Fold:
Amino acid sequence: MTEMIDVAVDVPLIDDEEMPQYLRSDVLDGRARDEALGMMRRLAQHLRDKTTDQAPSTMEEPIDNYLDEDLFRAEVDLIFKRIPLPLALSCELPGRNTYKAVEAVGVPVVITRDAKGEVHAMLNVCRHRGALLCGAGHGTARALTCPYHAWSFGMDGELRGMYGESTFGEVDRSKRGLIQLSCVERHGVVFVCLTPGLEIDIDSWLGDWGDQLASLKLDECHLFSSRMMPGPNWKAVIEGYLEAYHFAATHPNTVFKINHGNTMVFDGFGPHERLGFALRSIDDVMDAPEAEWDPAAHVGPIFWTFPGLSIAGGWRQRMTVALCLPTTKVGESVTEHRIVVRHAIDTSVQHDLEVMRDWFYDVVYNEDYLTQYGVQKGVSVTGGHTQVFGRNEIGVQHLHRTINRLLDENHEEGYALPREA
Ligand code: FES
Ligand SMILES: [Fe+2]
Structure:
């Protein structure tokens, strides 16, 4: 709770006129448009029938899921340290000799794009005496120079320079490069495995989800902003991204004004999920011929990559891309919120983008995350009992089934492959 107070956003929510505006993009072509139309068709039918996509039954899970230290350690060691984590977007490394430094589940990582355009991921730790090389954030550099004694490393991680080398004595430079982590850039996302020596098989991990990610054309996007937001246990946070059931109660003056509540379509792709929410504007068009439909204007899609990358509004010109990861404590997470755009960023759109960024940040923090801090307090006194996830909370059920499956099946020889949860 201390961290929450440090960053509390003490500003009134932005009024209606300033809510983020829809801007068309040309992402929805060919098969992507057919799939988006399919989602819109299903949503229209749900609205007519007053239904939503549902799981076969309700699901109970132990409250200790949010409290148990041993379980948390297993989640970190068997899931977060073994699977490919989507730690960066390609647009965060927009040119040669760029880097992004980030702490993921307590592991300091630096991701670079070298002079040849190749992406590398390494522990952000100097091989002299262990200082952190780069402060968190994005930058441009031809080399990474340690702030302690100024050893410098190439963007590929090789040890290049040692200050006062003639006084230092013998060092085998080939053994003093940065510790490499397996990483793959795919569909505009950089996936990193936090365990040195473990190789990523990205095709197995993504499966059919790869085509879904590719359809968003994230590799053509630009980064506008990135902000970190503290939160409670990672599952308590992520659950809020995966259902529309809470819109009416939690977001009566914001999200619920734009979206129908408790109406959702769900598709699972191995551990990953695609959700579609019905925007209220769908009411005016859903009885018109489908040829006139523009799903980007009337469906709110969430493309959600396990274990916590949420791409919202991915068919539009502007989208929010959030990654929630645990810290090293069971009751804490941190979410990196990015605004990503398909168009050039110049002064004419600067204000609009700032409004959009602040709107999302305020709504997510003041409405979702403060509610979820409440959940963390609530579960802290109800250990031993269970929670219940409704049939209409199918995306949340899928999340928990996936976590349970990975904890059961994952073991030291490798990492989990995608399979239906
Ligand atoms: S710890 Fe990095 S140069 Fe000494
Ligand atoms: Fe919410």
Notes: The chain has two domains: 12-78+207-409, 86-199. Residues 126, 128-129, 131, 146, 148-151 surround FE2/S2 (inorganic) cluster (ligand 1) (CB under 6 Å). Residues 131 and 148 are 7 Å apart (CA to CA). DSSP finds 13 helices and 20 strands in the chain.
